[in-house]
Amino acid sequence: MTISIGAIDDDISILYTLEAMAQSAGWNIKTSTDWRQAITWTQRKEVDLLLVDYHMPEISGLDLIEKIRSISKNIVILVLTIEESPTLAQKLLSLGADDFISKPIRLADFTSRIALHYRLASYRRLPGIEEPHKGISQDTMRLVIAELEAISPDKATAHDISKRIGVSYQTAHRYLEYLAGAGIANKEPLYQDGKPGRPKYLYYIPR
Question: What Gene3D superfamilies does UniProt report for this protein, alphabetically (predicted)?
Fold first, then answer.
């Protein structure tokens, strides 16, 4: 799987690290300390995915996300940040980011997040993916995926996800089934020692 990545960060040492990680995975990467380069790459469709620093001297990561999203709805945007608050995560997602990668960056997080969201983007580009199914929204779907990623390699039931993101069991189940049907998540039966009732399933992001 060949992925073209663009990385924007005012810290050159971070860019060197990202370049080494991308090359170790066999991916192409462009790097720059100038946020304007992200706009150029997006306009010219030179990259599949952008890594954007949240804290930059000339422009905030939030403003840059908005500028990029005004140009392309399909490009994947991952934000690099030292902050991990739920409030910030919700703000990033609402403005159009697909996910974030925490600093200091770990190779396992870097490769898994990029592979996952590149795969998800392939579904986004299909006809109708903006409204993939009645009752399915992109923002909630991203939240469900982010939670599955956060608990990986553990697995979760619909009840677990409903509690973690604050939606009803029915909503969590609908999104998990959609992701499983699209091949983005896997599911396996949770055996209950012969107890009566509907079978339960564990969901997880395949590695």
Answer: 3.40.50.2300, Winged helix-like DNA-binding domain superfamily/Winged helix DNA-binding domain (1.10.10.10)
